[in-house]
Specification:
The protein contains 13 helices and 12 strands. By secondary structure, the chain is of the alpha/beta class. The longest helix is centred in the first third of the chain and has 14 residues. The mean pLDDT is 89. It comes from Chryseobacterium wanjuense.
């Protein structure tokens, strides 16, 4: 049980499918006072693109936004500051909040590889505790290692184990080689008479067309197979109710496990993944998890004929949002998560 209550928390996070809102809500439910701000001044596709490519082009708007936050909180004192990712956050803001809250503990978490976002590295020095979901980054940059989590509504799916409508479901953003890998898997699934459903999501038609020009891996993407409507958690859960297994295709340069990994396993559904690093986690079980090589794709038909093997309650707790919060605010879990690594 987490002993975190009656604390004042300043929380800034990149927007990631409303998980940031779930974290803020859970911290509040525990009895804490949480002031939450999106770390981007805008979540329009143009704003995201500028911030990602070169936020200096956007610095006037960023500075105005963060000065407004400073004005909002100037009379407040905090026990903790939590930042998730921090693509847009300027150094002056980190310096100012620490100056006005000298006893405040500053906590950082990142769910993307730093090789993809090297500009984030310079802000690490401002934080007392620094966490990453990427094991290699934890070693290289001396960060604490903490994987992502699931929300309880996914765990509640374990009570719903009817006859599946699909053998394989894929729901994910259209990026890198996902379409190429996904379509190859679909062909093999069809050959094996496996029922499959694929949902590729993109943030906007114009942005996607622009990315197709820049990113050669997206050139093969059939725009007719892309949806520009984002699924909410209830819709995703509805698909999980109907399937035997869920496919997860990680970015080729990413070893950290996606949040989908935890949701799928917590829901009692089997997982098919291209991420070989999953073998270094406590919940790895070949009966539940089929690891495939994106360059040499093979599906084992026997995998779909057996039932999901239930995870232990101790492992389920370690995968949970409560455990995630406990790790960031109370005590790191490096000894636990690193103990399963085979290399």
């Amino acid at each position: 049980m987490i002993s975190l209550k009656n604390k004042k928390i300043l929380f800034l996070s990149v927007s990631f499918f409303k998980y940031e809102r779930a974290i803020a809500k859970r911290l509040t439910e525990m009895g804490n006072e949480v002031d939450f701000y999106d770390e981007r001044p805008s979540n329009s596709n143009i704003s995201k693109g500028i911030i990602r490519l070169n936020k200096r082009l956007y610095h006037l708007k960023i500075n105005k936004y963060y000065n407004r936050i400073l004005d909002d909180i100037k009379h407040k004192k905090y026990d903790y500051f939590l930042l998730i990712k921090g693509e847009a956050i300027p150094a002056f803001f980190l310096e100012k909040i620490k100056e006005s809250n000298p006893d405040m503990e500053m906590i950082y978490y990142n769910f993307d590889p730093l090789t993809e976002y090297p500009n984030l590295i310079s802000n690490l020095k401002y934080f007392d505790k620094k966490f990453t979901f990427e094991y290699n980054d934890s070693v290289k940059y001396n960060l604490n290692f903490r994987p992502l989590f699931y929300l309880d509504e996914y765990k509640n799916l374990r009570q719903n184990q009817g006859v599946p409508e699909y053998d394989i479901v894929f729901i994910g953003s259209a990026h890198t080689d996902r379409y190429i890998v996904g379509e190859k898997i679909k062909v093999i699934a069809d050959q094996l008479k496996l029922r499959s459903y694929f949902y590729y999501y993109a943030m906007g038609r114009f942005t996607f067309r622009l990315k197709k020009i820049i990113d050669k891996s997206l050139k093969q993407f059939d725009i007719d197979k892309v949806s520009f409507d984002k699924l909410n958690h209830d819709q995703i859960i509805d698909f999980y109710k109907k399937t035997k297994s869920v496919l997860d295709i990680n970015k080729p340069f990413q070893n950290g496990l996606t949040i989908r990994t935890f949701e799928v396993l917590a829901s009692g559904r089997k997982l098919i993944t291209t991420n070989f690093d999953i073998k270094n986690y406590p919940f790895y079980n070949p009966d539940n998890i089929l690891v495939i090589d994106r360059k040499n794709i093979q599906l084992d038909p026997e995998f779909f004929k057996t039932d999901f093997q239930e995870l232990g309650e101790d492992v389920l707790y370690k995968m949970s949002l409560d455990s995630f919060i406990e790790c960031l605010f109370i005590k790191d879990q490096d000894d636990y998560w690193n103990s399963f690594r085979k290399n």
